[in-house]
Design a protein that fits this description.
CATH superfamily of the largest domain: P-loop containing nucleotide triphosphate hydrolases
Strand order of the largest sheet: 17-16-18-19-15-20-21-22-23
Shape: elongated
Number of domains: 3
CATH architecture of the largest domain: 3-Layer(aba) Sandwich
Distance between the termini: 79 Å
Largest sheet: 9 strands, mixed
Low-confidence stretches: 1-5, 49-61
Mean pLDDT: 85
CATH topology of the largest domain: Rossmann fold
Structural class: alpha/beta
């Protein structure tokens, strides 16, 4: 066993001892056969042997496994200059070499969810390999959150050892002069790649502090994590380090510099940048691409599909069909284009909206009392939408800032890139005419900023003002004009496309126009395109059909 685990880890496989699917690491050597070690049950498997050598008593039950780790000692991590009391603060336990009884072979750092222990990250100190013990797949607390009591500043590092190094440095330099200074130090759960998700999942903790300082690694991954985090939390400060990370600075004896960089010199970064042509030329050379399709070929052609970083507004009078337009679009995106959609139906419950979407798939209206269907049919159709559509509960805030935050979170956490907001006018409910235009202007500007930051597409649906007295009303089939939208000037300034829907819904409607609607372009800010298309609303399938796709 003298040379065990000194080879190169070639791959991971199942463990013959505990049955773990991937915790058994295979090690290859130049001068001896392969052996392996399971980091789930701490069991060594010698070369060419069925014999196993347990490094610690293995408990098959996960909770017993966690209890076993809690029984391991807390030691100073001497090669990182981290003292025992610091390791104790962060509850980091260690196992030691059976050869000398002192060399740390594994470090176990705890993970919590809502303050409850759920697992450990196990680090093999020899080859820096990481394995998981317990259930660490959820939206975990920021690592070290149990040390947080609120106060002046919260520092967030990229790694766990970095958090301990910075915590120790602050305590060592926080003398009598700064005795009232209260700071907490935590780390991301899974490194730079988890930065934005970790911050969003821990907003309640972050809100307890007057200042939040990001202390990510001084490398490309750390810089990227910082940029992405500041898009969501632009007022957070950042600390600039002269070395890669706080751990390196502690080991190099630069505690005072680290303290000053984080505590005194951290600052809010300017997000705006000035660039030259050479900075953007590679992006400029990319050829424009068609977006994904609408359910109607005419609309797809006119808009070049649904493209990223664009905003559409759709306007119609009440009971004309803009909600059916929206639901058919969502159904098409989910089932044909295989993309997820976020829905902000501010006038209906998620239950009703979900049943309407299910109706599109089943080609029968589940919301009508006279529709005949089996419960299993509705359940199966609804289950088919699960994970494909996320709803905003209107019982929550209808404030635009709350909706903007929800859009950001759905995009970053759920991978959703297309959003429906219906109706836009609900966001300014209760405002007088002058306030309405002012507030809608702010919302339009904010929405434009949002699509400039993230590669998303927004669809706003809006009621329109009635026609002047003496003119043909909308309900008799009169066309919608962009000037009839609430906040029309702001929409035309900040949004990319405007769509109108018209239909004669009166009893006097000619027979050949029954169930006929007209879709058309109101404005195209980018290319000046236009379209007009007649569509037939097939009541049997609750679907708008272009002439060449009609079933009648």
């Amino acid at each position: 066993m003298k040379d065990r685990l000194r080879g190169t880890c070639s791959h991971k496989t199942s463990c013959p001892s505990c049955g773990s699917s991937d915790a058994n690491q295979i090690y290859s050597y130049d001068d001896m056969p392969d052996d392996s070690f399971c980091f789930a049950c701490d069991t060594y498997h010698p070369p060419n042997s069925a014999v196993v050598v347990p490094i610690k008593p293995y408990k098959a039950d996960t909770m017993k496994d966690l209890e076993h780790i809690k029984s391991l000692p807390i030691l100073a991590i001497k090669d990182r200059r981290i003292r025992q009391e610091t390791a104790s603060t962060y509850r980091v336990r260690a196992s030691v070499s059976q050869e000398d009884g002192t060399t740390i072979t594994h470090l176990y750092s705890p993970d919590t969810l809502n303050g409850k222990l759920v697992g450990y990250e196990c680090k093999d100190t020899a080859n820096k390999a990481f394995t998981s013990i317990g259930d660490r797949k959820g939206e975990l607390d920021l690592w070290g959150s149990w040390t947080c009591t609120g106060g002046n500043k919260l520092f967030i590092t990229e790694g766990r050892l970095d958090a301990m190094a910075l915590h120790q440095t602050i305590n060592d330099n926080n003398g009598e002069k700064y005795k009232d200074f209260k700071a907490s130090v935590v780390s991301l759960t899974r490194g730079a790649s988890s930065a934005v998700k970790d911050l969003l999942n821990n907003k309640a903790l972050l809100s307890k502090y007057k200042e939040v300082v990001l202390v990510f690694d001084n490398d490309d991954a750390g810089a990227k994590a910082t940029r992405e985090s500041l898009k969501v939390f632009p007022l957070y400060k950042t600390a600039k380090l002269s070395m890669k990370d706080p751990c390196d600075m502690l080991m190099a004896g630069k505690q005072k510099e680290l303290f000053e960089s984080c505590v005194f010199n951290a600052s809010v970064e300017r997000q705006g940048e000035v660039v030259d042509v050479h900075d953007i030329i590679e992006n400029a050379m990319l050829k424009p691409q068609m977006g994904i399709s609408f359910p109607w070929a005419t609309v797809t052609k006119a808009c070049f599909g649904i493209r990223e970083r664009t905003i559409h507004c759709v306007g119609a009078s009440a009971k004309i069909g803009k909600t059916d337009w929206q639901h058919q679009l969502v159904h098409h995106l989910v089932y044909n284009e295989k993309v997820k959609v976020g829905m902000f139906d501010l006038e209906n419950s998620p239950v009703k909206t979900a049943k309407k979407l299910a109706s599109k798939q089943a080609k029968k209206d589940f919301t009508r009392p006279d529709t005949i269907y089996e419960d299993s049919e509705l359940r199966q159709t609804l289950e088919g939408l699960d994970g494909k559509v996320r709803f905003y509960d209107r019982a929550g805030s209808r404030d635009w800032e709350a909706i903007r935050t929800a859009i950001t979170e759905m995009h970053l956490l759920d991978g959703i890139n297309i959003f429906m907001i219906d109706p836009m006018t609900t966001l300014v409910q209760g405002c007088d005419a002058s306030q309405t235009n002012t507030e809608l202007g702010k919302i339009c500007s904010s929405a434009a900023d949002l699509v400039s930051v993230y590669p998303i597409t927004l669809f706003f649906f809006s009621h329109v003002n009635p026609k002047p007295k003496g003119s043909t009303p909308h309900e008799k089939g009169a066309r919608v004009y962009s000037s009839e939208f609430f906040g029309s000037r702001s929409m035309e300034r900040f949004f990319h496309y405007g769509h109108g829907i018209s239909r004669d819904r009166t009893d006097e409607c000619p027979e050949d126009r029954k169930n006929m609607s007209e879709f058309y372009m109101l404005f195209d800010r980018d290319f000046g395109q236009s379209y007009t298309c007649d569509v037939y609303f097939d009541e049997a399938t609750v679907t708008y059909l272009e002439p060449k796709t009609r079933s009648w």
